[in-house]
Amino acid sequence: MKVLQQAPAFVLGFDVAKDTITVFDSRSEQVEVIDNTRAALHRYLKGLAGDGLAVCEPTGGYEAVLLEELLAAGVCCHRADALKTLAFQRSFGTLAKTDAIDARALAHYGQERWSSLVLFSPVPAQQAMLCALVARRQDLVDLKVAETNRLKAPGMKMIKASCKAILRGIARELAKIDDEIDKLIAACQTLRRRIEICQSLPGVGPRTAIALAALMPELGSLSRRRAAALAGVAPHPKDTGKIRGYRKMRGGRPEVRTVLFMAALAASRAKGHLRQVYQRLIDNGKKPIVAIAALMRKIIVILNAKIRDEIAQLS
Fold first, then answer.
1. Which candidate, 74, 77, 163, places its Cα nearest to that of 121?
2. How far is 201 from 212, CA to CA, in rounded Å?
3. Which parts of the chain fold into alpha helices (H)?
4. Which of 142, 160, 168, 252 is 20 to 30 A from 96 in CA distance terms?
5. In which element (H, E) is residue 56 found?
6. How many Å apart are CA 258 and CA 216, to the nearest integer?
């Protein structure tokens, strides 16, 4: 993960909306509003030196053009966690919220935290497509569960007929998406190999392996603790004074945690050393849910090590 090695000469805070972008420039301390179009961004960024830093937040894809233009202009950029920037802003006692205030806060956040901010780098097209397909597939699966539950509930025949029609449409769309995913994996050797490595672990099936390849492309480049934290399966202490609180998994990527839960559940019943780990924890008096959580963490740590070793061999 790349970070700046020296303080930036200036910081730009971008508050992105659908149609406009509010910019705060640390050099002039001025706020400007520009159109969220490629042409307007190109004009604004033209002539900027490459020793600055731009900070924005994810806004459902509306920041994509901005990030592309920043990279083209040679300006380093960081896509900040909205919860972190909100906490930073609140730490100054600021409760008001406007586009100008948010842009200024993003710039100040970059000025203060520049040494620890991971710089944005574009995701390979195939990786981005896989991530989008996996996310859409999960949306359809969630919709399928909802419609199936409605179908089972007592109600009029017309409602049940509507649910059946929706379910048939969802099944067709799921088949199309699965076909696109299979084609994408077949065309990309890197993705195919990562998925094969994930499937080599008992409990990790094809869909779980594909989801992990899409949702955690960083696997193989992290330490074991960072991998667990990013996956949302790291236990965080909650101690104060003489009190030792219950350690809970929190943070990270919740969608990865969901995938790992199903994998751990399957691994606890499949043949292999993970089942033995699970049984040993149960024999030692651990609750089943705690043992499953331990398996979730062990799965992501093992996969991270396997992919790291594969990368080392190729290099």
1. 77
2. 13
3. 38-45, 64-73, 82-90, 99-113, 125-152, 157-187, 189-199, 206-215, 224-230, 254-267, 273-283, 288-314
4. 252
5. strand 53-56
6. 13
Q: Look up tokens 């963490």; give the residue.
A: 297
Q: Which residues contact 196 (CB under 8 A, 6 or more apart)?
A: 209
From first to last of its 315 residues, what are the pLDDT tens digits of the chain? 688 889 999 999 999 999 999 999 999 999 999 999 999 999 999 877 668 999 999 998 899 999 999 999 889 999 999 999 999 999 999 899 999 999 999 999 999 999 999 999 888 899 999 999 999 999 999 999 999 999 888 877 778 889 999 999 999 999 999 999 999 999 999 999 999 999 999 999 999 999 999 999 999 999 999 999 999 998 888 888 888 887 888 888 999 999 999 999 999 998 889 999 999 999 999 999 999 999 999 999 999 999 999 888 876
- Given the structure tokens 């649910």, which residue do they identify? 163
124: DSSP letter: P
d(CA 105, CA 81): 13
| 77-82, long-range: CB < 8 A, 24+ apart | 77/53, 77/119, 77/120, 78/53, 78/54, 78/110, 78/117, 78/118, 78/119, 78/120, 79/120, 80/55, 80/56, 80/106, 80/109, 80/117, 81/57, 82/57, 82/58
Model-level pTM?
0.84
Per the CB < 8 A criterion, the answer to whether 251 and 232 are in contact is yes
